């Protein structure tokens, strides 16, 4: 039989986050008491006012197709949100609603990349960025944001990485997996390079609402009209409103990019789920009290669990400023426990300590592992206790 698979899928790497989560679920089904710190989603239910809006829309018969780029009423809610929260002004033809921010990013790369175009991706990165770039025929170009730099890249690094094939740079702030946030000054320096080199900025702001210790999120598109014109802002309600399964994300940017994204969506998804769109209208137009309550809960967990995790031998942890992840560098711990691979280290933590963590190899950071604190404080403290016991039991001087 002929080879049935297209070349574009042969180099795909499965999502490490989903793989670990699946393994943890398998162990749980065997009756093993596994604590999962792998999932990238809030552990709260979607706020009640949003649930009510979804039910109401269905009862009114609002269950048919919508325009491919999103309901007009939802586009207006997004535009109002961007004005209210970010002081950014957009028109309806500069906004597209998609099936989650992941689908938005996939669609974006499909419409901006030609074969061989390069996209600069800071390390550590969210696992899907390189795969989506490659699927669009692009070439990921990695630039390391070291721990000493707060896991952020500098303008000088960006400038050195740009070639005549560079199409865009991805900025994810607050970051998955590091939780670090670019300051306004850092963003201004990066934007200056993007303007100098005439490249696009893909600004992934999905964790925008989850910021701590008085730090504020700032969108790079806020810097100036010129920067806004070359920036595609990507966001959604998954993390901010605990709506991961509703699959609503959006992009805001140049109409000449948003239109082909919408055209492509019309041939792939038709539209994001109608009920979820109406729910998102309420998410942005309704009370934001639940958003703040969840943010405060995450901050309280961070304050409690960060020093405990940092106390584990060989765990070097930068305190995150946003999102809900901790990314300890465990190179020292591995060296003293006989591991030469973070994947093997994480695998044994799962099977021996019964704690699911994500190895940093999937994020381009092979001496780290990601722990999500999107779970109860009791479970977090027990998980850290188990990991601590595991490391100390194998420690060799």
TrEMBL record:
Domain Aminotransferase class I/classII large as annotated: residue spans: 33-387
GO function terms (MF aspect): transaminase activity
Requisite cofactors: pyridoxal 5'-phosphate
Keywords recorded for this protein, A-Z: Aminotransferase, Pyridoxal phosphate, Transferase
Keyword Lipoprotein: no
Pfam family, one: Aminotran_1_2
EC number(s) on file: 2.6.1.-
Keyword Transferase assigned: yes
UniProt record similarity statement: Belongs to the class-I pyridoxal-phosphate-dependent aminotransferase family.
Protein name: Aminotransferase
Species per Swiss-Prot/TrEMBL record: Lysinibacillus zambalensis
Upper taxonomic lineage: Bacteria, Bacillati, Bacillota, Bacilli, Bacillales
